Amino acid sequence: MSDPSRGPGVLHVVATPIGNLGDLSPRAQTVLRGVDAICAEDTRHTRQLLGHFGIERPLVALHEHNEDGLAARLVERLQAGESLALVSDAGTPLVSDPGFRLVRAAREAGLKVSPLPGPSALIAALSVAGLPSDRFVFEGFLPAKAGARRERLQALVAEPRTLLFYEASHRIEEMLADAAQVFGGDRKAVMARELTKLFETVLDGPLDALAARVQTEADQRKGEFVVLIEGAGDDADARLAEGHRVYALLSREMKPSLAAKLAADITGAPRKALYGQGTPGA
Ligand code: SAM
């Protein structure tokens, strides 16, 4: 209900559980109970969550297809004194989820946007991976198409910080196989699956072993995933990164097999890790 006498409302950005409903904080429950409306990615999904806690508030569907159009209207409601909450289907809104445009519009209008921190699969995975966590890079979802995915991975080979990716069950096998090829099978990695849920599993090991396990065990391809890859640290990683760079240049001018052989000779990177990389349609 708009009431100009109470001044502009607040946009609360509220994290919700990534699996275990016990992770909805008491403060999140209080705020969700108190707002005029809740903007939700999927209203049916959010209604279920709210139902579990006995919270009944009006819901507004806000997803990637209508966010642009709806943001201005929601800003007007905030300016008129309504307080709103923004949630996504799971975890922290805006982290590989809608909300960025609404938050930007609210901030540009000088409105208060207040975080209600809580679960995020990315931070949950980082906290249990046992990989360096002082500096890390979140890459979200890799491209669905194989060529674009490998290109993106290749651009990250020399990255020294721990890398984090979200991945879907139907692509986890391909993703790990590509990562093993591009980064080299020895690079340390962790696959965090179904965090906070019944089948929570955190596997670690060299990329080739992880890829092989996921290929052979169908259960390891079920659910939701965060994949973490240790950053390039030592000489071997630097050699591999340089190998990829030289191979990409040479393969424009000659057959991939010869380019891989020469790039391996020049840089000392393993030929097998280079072959097939950077060639169109490879
Ligand atoms: N906003 C969410 C967050 O803060 O984590 C992420 C939303 S994104 C659309 C969904 C992806 O997050 C999934 O495909 C998966 O990669 C990851 N994810 C979500 N829940 C997870 C869980 N319980 N365990 C592992 N990964 C999860």
From TrEMBL:
The keyword S-adenosyl-L-methionine applies. It is found in: Cytoplasm. It catalyses: cytidine(1402) in 16S rRNA + S-adenosyl-L-methionine = 2'-O-methylcytidine(1402) in 16S rRNA + S-adenosyl-L-homocysteine + H(+). Keywords: Cytoplasm, Methyltransferase, rRNA processing, S-adenosyl-L-methionine, Transferase. Gene3D superfamilies: Cobalt-precorrin-4 Transmethylase, Domain 1, Methyltransferase, Cobalt-precorrin-4 Transmethylase, Domain 2. Residues 11-210 form the Tetrapyrrole methylase domain. GO terms for cellular component: cytoplasm. It comes from the Bacteria. Residues 240-275 form the RsmI HTH domain. CDD domains: RsmI (cd11648). Catalyzes the 2'-O-methylation of the ribose of cytidine 1402 (C1402) in 16S rRNA. This is Ribosomal RNA small subunit methyltransferase I.
